């Protein structure tokens, strides 16, 4: 089965065209080698799928005949993604919360309150 079709069938991507685009952009690797959309996938191969700033590490357990339901996905792939990858995503979310772009002007009243609250919380944590 083609890698783009496999990723669509195990519900990693909503559509096959999105899976194809991910392959073309180099976000899909089979055994640490960039995969073209037409590359065949076989049982036992290791996949690395970059999606939403997370590198998912998957192992192919079986090849589905067609798109499977969400409850049956684990029959066809084994997810070996380390927990640190998801923790890194949480850190990115927190860092973006208080980031202001240069030239965005003066902070609003709400921005100032949020900044003050953030600084108070960080000072309190470092003192104890």
From TrEMBL:
Record's keyword terms, sorted: DNA-binding, RNA-binding, Stress response
Give the region (Disordered) as residue ranges: 101-128
InterPro entries, A to Z: HSP15 (IPR025708), S4_RNA-bd (IPR002942), S4_RNA-bd_sf (IPR036986)
Q: Which SMART domains match?
A: S4 (SM00363)
- Whether Transmembrane helix counts among this entry's keywords is no
Q: Which SUPFAM superfamilies match?
A: Alpha-L RNA-binding motif
Its domain of life reads Bacteria
Q: Which GO terms describe its biological process?
A: cellular response to heat
Q: Which GO terms describe its molecular function?
A: DNA binding; ribosomal large subunit binding; single-stranded RNA binding
Q: Where is the RNA-binding S4 domain?
A: 1-59
Assigned protein family: Belongs to the HSP15 family.
UniProt-recorded name of the protein: Heat shock protein Hsp15
Species the sequence originates in? Wenyingzhuangia marina
Q: What is the lineage of its organism?
A: Bacteria, Pseudomonadati, Bacteroidota, Flavobacteriia, Flavobacteriales
């Amino acid at each position: 089965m083609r890698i783009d079709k496999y990723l669509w069938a195990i519900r990693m991507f909503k559509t096959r065209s999105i899976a194809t685009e991910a392959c073309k952009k180099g976000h899909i690797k089979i055994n640490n080698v960039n995969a073209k959309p037409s590359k065949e996938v076989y049982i036992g191969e290791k996949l690395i799928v970059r999606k939403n700033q997370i590198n998912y590490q998957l192992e192919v357990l079986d090849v589905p005949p067609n798109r499977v339901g969400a409850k049956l996905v684990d029959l066809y792939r084994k997810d070996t993604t380390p927990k640190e990858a998801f923790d890194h995503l949480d850190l990115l979310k927190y860092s973006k919360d208080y980031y202001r772009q240069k030239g965005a002007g003066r902070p609003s009243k709400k921005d100032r309150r949020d900044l003050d609250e953030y600084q108070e919380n960080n000072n309190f944590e470092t003192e104890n």
